[in-house]
Design a protein that fits this description.
- This protein has 487 residues and is α+β, with helices and mostly antiparallel strands.
- β15 and β16 form a beta hairpin.
- The longest helix is centred in the middle third of the chain and has 15 residues.
- The radius of gyration is 23 Å and the shape is globular.
Length: 487
């Protein structure tokens, strides 16, 4: 039988860091092109756009602005409101802007890897912000280094911008150079490129990473998610299509489509975990998708219980769906502290217990003496899940039934999710029953892959589920980590 204290005896501080027991997406991008002859606060709009995309990356952030002659920028480690204040934003004056928030999946977490990346080419300055991961970046980097290219960072975004500047020499337009870059690279990308007189939005041919277009009365806007359009009161126009290059220039928007890929593969975890619930991606509501996942989970794995609770925040919509499908009352059983980063672990047993409760604390009256169903979006290593189950039992829960609104994660991802090794994945080593025993739950049920793929109702694209089934849309390395290629 499991004992709560056993969960606290581990001396490895990583076991108490929720950040490494969750999947992480690489970053978020945001761009503004002013259509008004009068001055528009493009840096301010970008600040609020990035603030709404902060969930996509908390390591670093940056904004670059252009007055259509010169690009100036500021970027640093930390959260958006920590990096930018009124004084800094007042220095960022222009008619176009591109911004970025980063969680590193390739390249170390250092200031020089913060984005946007700004370079000077024979055709003027360029600024690039990139969301995604380039699978063949190390090969391309080596080829360019052998021909004399000098790199200042270790991230794959610099590979992209160096390819664009290289192809600009033999191209009549910037978009032609971008087309040639797209022919060279393999991987996922939703990127925004700013030049002297225009902004380009580009999405990979499979549509693995999202990108959408909006408009205010005085500007066009590009963003990773529609919630960022809402933040700046921009009207949603449409999603950038897979393989499409959108060009915003001369107060107009046009596009070219060098790829016509019908086998689209939007990352299914945008709906499970990454995206904000108020976003709509390629025609499907994120919140509705999570709610539907909870309903399907209830059908596939019913259980007799007294209350359904969700792990904040991405498990809540699924928990409500599970509750409505079964008739079991929904309740708030866990409180999450959203204002702490890495939990500091003291060596004593007592301080470890305090550290556990800093992240999640139970509402005792909601669970005491009850059979509890708890819903989470995924299980990666299982250490956080085990802690939560134990906390609920210590709070007096009679039974704890774990339900997961996605299938077991068994394979690494190479397209922008920070899971690059099967060694990190508990489902690669253990059966469902063995995982149940490890996390000390009374029962454990995962949503089936077939059930999950039906949850994004109204989606216009197909889905990448390679981390669940091993079917990669692009050839990938056998194994790796986010620093192995040095990019």
């Amino acid at each position: 039988m499991c004992n709560f204290g056993d969960c606290l005896k581990c001396s490895n501080p990583d076991c108490f860091d929720e950040r490494i027991d969750k999947m992480h997406e690489e970053c978020g991008v945001f761009g503004v092109y002013s259509t008004d002859a009068n001055e528009v606060d493009v840096a301010g709009l970008t600040y609020y756009g990035l603030y709404s995309l902060q969930h996509r990356g908390q390591e670093s952030a940056g904004i670059a602005v252009s007055d259509r002659e010169t690009i100036v920028f500021h970027k640093d480690m930390g959260l958006v409101p920590e990096i930018f204040d009124k004084v800094m934003l007042n220095h960022l004056k222009g008619t176009m802007a591109v911004g970025h928030v980063r969680y590193s999946t390739t390249g170390a977490s250092r200031r020089e890897n913060a984005q946007p990346i700004v370079v000077r080419s024979r055709n003027g300055q360029l600024a690039l912000a990139h969301n995604g991961n380039i699978v063949n970046a190390s090969i391309l980097r080596e080829q360019m280094e052998n021909s004399g290219t000098i790199f200042q960072t270790t991230n794959d975004t610099e590979v992209l911008i160096n390819l664009i500047t290289k192809h600009s020499i033999t191209s009549e337009t910037l978009e032609e150079a971008v087309e040639k870059m797209m022919m060279d690279v393999k991987g996922s990308y939703g990127l925004i490129l700013m030049a002297a007189s225009k902004i380009l939005g580009v999405r990979d041919p499979y549509g693995i990473r999202p990108l959408c277009i909006g408009k205010t009365p005085t500007a066009y806007v590009l963003a990773s998610e529609s919630c960022a359009l809402d933040a700046v009161n921009a009207e949603f126009i449409r999603d950038v299509e897979p393989g499409e290059i959108v060009i915003i220039e001369n107060n107009e928007i046009r596009s070219v489509r060098p790829f016509n890929n019908k086998d689209t593969k939007l990352c299914i975890f945008e709906f499970v975990y990454f995206a904000r619930p108020d976003s709509v991606i390629d025609g499907a509501s994120v919140q509705q998708s999570r709610y539907e996942a909870g309903k399907r989970l209830a059908i596939e794995h019913p259980v007799e219980a007294d209350v359904v609770i969700g792990v904040p925040d991405s498990g809540i919509s699924a928990a409500i769906g599970f509750s409505n499908q079964t008739g079991i009352p929904y309740g708030e059983g866990l409180v999450k502290n959203r204002y702490v980063g890495r939990t500091f672990i003291q060596p004593s047993q007592g301080m470890r217990e305090v550290a556990v409760r800093i992240k999640h604390n139970p509402i005792k009256k909601s669970v005491e003496g009850k059979r509890v169903v708890i819903i989470d979006d995924s299980i990666v290593r299982g250490t956080t899940t085990r802690r939560i189950v134990q906390i609920l039992k210590k709070a007096g829960a009679k039974e704890v039934h774990m339900r997961v609104s996605s299938p077991p994660i068994k394979f690494p991802c190479y397209f922008g999710i920070d899971i690059s090794s099967r060694k990190e994945l508990v489902a690669d080593k253990l059966s469902v029953e063995e995982i149940r025993e490890m996390i000390c739950a009374d029962t454990l049920g995962y949503l089936s892959l077939d059930g999950l793929l039906k949850t994004p109702i109204g989606s216009k694209l197909g889905f990448c589920s390679a981390c669940l089934d091993g079917n990669y849309p692009i050839d990938v390395p056998e194994e790796g980590d986010k620093f192995s290629c040095g990019c």
